[in-house]
Protein: NAD-dependent protein deacetylase
Organism: Aminicella lysinilytica
Amino acid sequence: MDDRLKQIIDDSKAIVFFGGAGVSTESGIPDFRSESGLYHAQQVYGYAPETMLSHSFYKSHTEMFFKYYKENLIHLDAEPNEAHKTLAGLEADGKLIGIVTQNIDGLHQKAGSKQVYELHGSVMRNFCEKCGKAYDLDYVMDPANCDNGVPYCNCGGIVKPDVVLYEEMLNDDTVSGAVNAISQADTLIIGGTSLVVYPAAGLINYFHGKHLVLINKDKTSADSRADLVINDSIGKVMKL
């Protein structure tokens, strides 16, 4: 781990980690917002990712939505990387009070983290739009439960991923929990995000603690506010 970061962590009692796509890409999950992701979507599906992952597209082109969703947002073999593992360890040690993530892959929980605020939901949770019954990811991915790739509940309703689509609002309870954690933190570590996706990026304005750390391969709009900026791989920087 970077020596400067280690010193800040040692000095902290209530750390919150705010993470974006860069945390997941190091586990082999591609960022659909990247140039290659945009190009791939247009070439293979004929639409931009933002279009296919919108609520209106989900409603009007349900089969195409699930085709793109299953082929690009589900990564069953992905494993937690060094950043996920270190954060889980910091929580177990009582140093970290919460993780706020824009990712939907469930890797923080897979690494052992408990207090995770998933701003954009999770592919691990799914529910019937008709009766509300909950289903896991295995059910959604099993062709036996699907018609042309669309998963159906026993009652006949469509099983929708608990993922926040474009045009949908963030969950109020999740946002409130994230705001509360960030406002209580003495250290906020931001990693793997360029801080351009709102309203999530605006949550850092609730931080009034001692140390603000930014770890990202590229510069961000908040670099000037940080006590420590590290332009490098988050897994490499966070590795114990």
User: Anything to note?
Assistant: The first strand starts at residue 15 and ends at 19. The chain has a mean pLDDT of 93.
